[in-house]
Task: structure prediction
Amino acid sequence: MKQHDKFLNDQFKAGTHLPLIDRFYTLQGEGAFAGEAAYFIRVGGCDIGCHWCDEKISWNPAQHKSVSIDKIIENLKNLKGKTLVVTGGEPSLYNLSVLTKKAHNIGFNTHVETSGAYTLTGKWDWVCLSPKPQSMPLIENFEKASELKVIIFNKEDIAWAEECSNKVSKNCKLFLQPEWSRHEENTGLIVDYIKENPKWRISIQSHKFMKIP
Ligand code: SF4
Result:
């Protein structure tokens, strides 16, 4: 198991609290569940260091408020949508077992969006693996992936996406997603590629076009 203790205080280790950047009820914008209602929590803390990251504010967990799992669960109880999406930052830095158990207890599906760089804790109904070349996912996380979503910043990333697709299970859904700042250049490239390689689908960050969180 990789070590990442610098991110963890005793409450984070126990899984009773998480440092949250944000939490909100919205529509999932991208990937296999695009368009569906979901409650998002964005967990602070990430050491992956993508140069194009649009959430650099997330990197230092000390800048984000520690919130109890009980408080998060309380916020879910009156929602009509029954999907909890945990994203970041990098969720696999943290103990997520208490969160997923309590979310399941009130009838929620649990989805996580992760680079897969660390051991993934908790019980997940859907694992969206978004691998980053500078900090490859653990092999066990490739195997857990329900969905592989590779961000395409330049055309070389497509060859790397193919390498990653050889490591996931045969039922895993495969997505290529244009990096937001270059979506105008890269969408056409991805469309042409998928027409020749139809095992892939395109994922568009539709929430950014809709200007919703
Ligand atoms: S893994 Fe996500 S949060 Fe971390 S640097 Fe990359 S894009 Fe940003």
Observations:
- The chain has a mean pLDDT of 95.
